[in-house]
Write a structure and sequence with these properties.
Number of strands: 5
Radius of gyration: 35 Å
Structural class: alpha+beta
Mean pLDDT: 94
Strand content: 15-25%
Largest sheet: 3 strands, antiparallel
Low-confidence stretches: none
């Protein structure tokens, strides 16, 4: 196999097996032919590199899909937390039947506890989604 050492007018050197228009040939290099063993070794390495590249593409695709799913979970968790906080804020006023005289009764406190639990659950869900995203990255 022959390789041409070529230079352009600015002296930049390139190597190619074909003449490049606008460049002058400085030297022709004769490369020795690879032995059968060397060709087999080269082909084996190319195959291994191709397998590695495909494995990396698969991992990248899986990671991207995981991040996309996780972003959806974060958006959902954020929305759920905002809704739960609004429900708690709007639910602080007692409803009919939640007072005994001038005092709040057990029904009021149970309802508020349920609203607070909903905020807590939404916050935990959102925190887990953020932790998962950090793990993936």
């Amino acid at each position: 196999m022959q390789v041409l050492k070529q230079a352009d007018g600015d002296g930049r050197v390139t190597y190619s097996d074909q003449p490049v228009p606008g460049k002058r040939v400085l030297r022709t290099l004769d490369l020795p032919q690879a032995s059968g063993f060397e060709r087999a070794e080269i082909e084996s390495r190319r195959t291994a590199i191709a397998r590695e590249a495909e494995a990396l593409r698969v991992r990248l695709r899986e990671r991207t899909e995981s991040l996309d799913r996780n972003d959806q979970e974060i958006r959902l968790g954020s929305r759920m937390l905002a809704e739960a906080q609004r429900a708690l804020e709007n639910g602080l006023a007692p409803q009919a039947g939640e007072r005994t005289g001038r005092r709040f009764n057990e029904a009021y406190f149970n309802r508020i506890a349920g609203l607070e639990q909903r905020v807590f659950d939404a916050r935990v869900r959102l925190e887990r989604a953020y932790m998962e995203r950090n793990r993936i990255k």
